[in-house]
Amino acid sequence: MTTEIAxxxxxxxxxxxxxxxxxxxxxxxxxxxxxxxxxxxxxxxxVALMVNGSMDFLGVPWEIIAKEFRCTTPDGAATLTIKxxxxxxxxxxxxxxxxxxxxxxxxxDGLIEEELDSITAIVRDRLxxxxxxxxxxxIHDVLRGLYTTVMAERVQALAQNPLLESLAGxxxxxxxxxxxxIVAELETQRIPFDANADQREFFAxxxxxxxxxxxxxxxxxxLIVAGFGGKDLFPSLYAVDIDGFIAGQLRYRASxxxxxxxxxxxxxxxxxxxxxxxxxxxxxxxNRFIDGARAFIKENVSGSLERNFTRLxxxxxxxxxxxxxxxxxxxxxxDLIASQFESKFAANLRTEFERKFKETIAxxxxxxxxxxxxxxxxITAIERKASDDAGTVGGPIDVALITRAEGFVWxxxxxHFKADxxxxxxxxxxxxxTQEGSDEEE
Length: 442
Description:
There is one protein chain. The protein is an alpha+beta fold. The chain has 3 domains: 3-99 and 218-283 and 358-430, Aminohydrolase, N-terminal nucleophile (Ntn) domain (Glutamine Phosphoribosylpyrophosphate, subunit 1, domain 1); 101-213, no CATH class; 287-357, no CATH class. Helices cover 46% and strands 19% of the residues. Strands 12-1-2-15-16 form a 5-stranded antiparallel sheet, covered by helices on one side. The chain has a 5-stranded antiparallel sheet with strand order 5-6-9-10-11. A hairpin with a 5-residue loop joins strand 13 (316-317) and strand 14 (323-324). The protein is globular and about 85 Å long.
């Protein structure tokens, strides 16, 4: 994981990213503190890219893809908006050698294995109770019924999710043939019973629905493009979450679209990836507190009403004379008060905190934008050190500022080599040598 910050007003946008990269799969997560997540996206135009989440796409590091794109000049670059810069980058990615059938297939296999593991975990949790209810049934019949039920629930839940915008026009029927062929090749030991054709078809529908609507995976990446479009007086930012490739198209959805103007939207700070610490500072609270408070209110209002009505032997009657149990009434009242807390009090509190910060950020000079961006990342890293976190935020903080006049400028940047030790590189790259003792890299 990571923490990244964009602080933006009419003067420019300051970007800051930590260097911690978490690699799962070693028994325990492995954390490296030297990852690059902030890149200059164009050699000529004031545009930057930040990445978070997975640090590669289909096995190729984002750093390689970003630096290759930087060496190109998109058609009409001088007039592109920031959103269009993102579109050009995604088009470049879709046509990149990264997207090979074998790599896409491995990614699809990983998603299918992940989904099957999730379904199996739910079945395992329900197995004991189901076996107790149907003690005379064969265990394979119990498993078969549970898998069918869980898959039906999963299809219904996924169908409620909005279609990924990048896959507009792609239907479940269009990708089912591909998914069916992959599911047909699943090893029989992956399912603890002999799945029949109907159940394999059910599972294929689960996978198809997930491919079209769900990005909640460890392999997903957040991409943020920020800077100035060709005709923009003020900066803007556009971000997407992306994961995988299906039906000849990338799977992604927009997450942020920020445009600074003369009117109300004159400044703001946006956090990406691990946002809880920054939310507490900029919004007065975070989702963990709101969710916990909501659960506390619901539980205690419900329990208190039920206990007191039972103790006082009170009854609640409907207009038709039928009785409402204290537990039912307590649940309804607890839900009502908890939802009012969330939608009224908590929402108003966050809105007021945000409004005050935005008003201040809108007035900040460039140096203060830089300092705030770096400080917000640093605060998160310090909080993680003081908690039981595995160190998922940390390492050197890279900071850059983009303005209309100066373009992309590094403020702080970690280096893996010194310029004065590599004069031939400096000559190849820039046609000159740097001053002795200076640090510079690509």
